[in-house]
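Worked Example 4.2. Consider the chain below.
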Amino acid sequence: MADGPEWFAPKARGVGSGLPIAWQGWALLIGYIAVLLALTPLAGRSILAHLSAVSALTVIFMIICAKTTRGGWRWRGRE
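Applying the procedure from the previous section yields the following structure tokens:
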């Protein structure tokens, strides 16, 4: 079990997070999507800058998801 907050449910199969289970998880997901949409105009100016910003944002989002998923990220499959 995670010692910290639990904002996301684990996926039923595979590795990663499922849907948010707390309001903080929903706020994080909505904020992530909002920032992605705000970065869209950057794509017209420089595709490299856009990809870099989206990549950095996604890595940060994934780290937060991994740290706040109930039970952590591990393989879950048919046992």
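The mean pLDDT is 90. The radius of gyration is 15 Å. Compare this with Example 4.1 before moving on.
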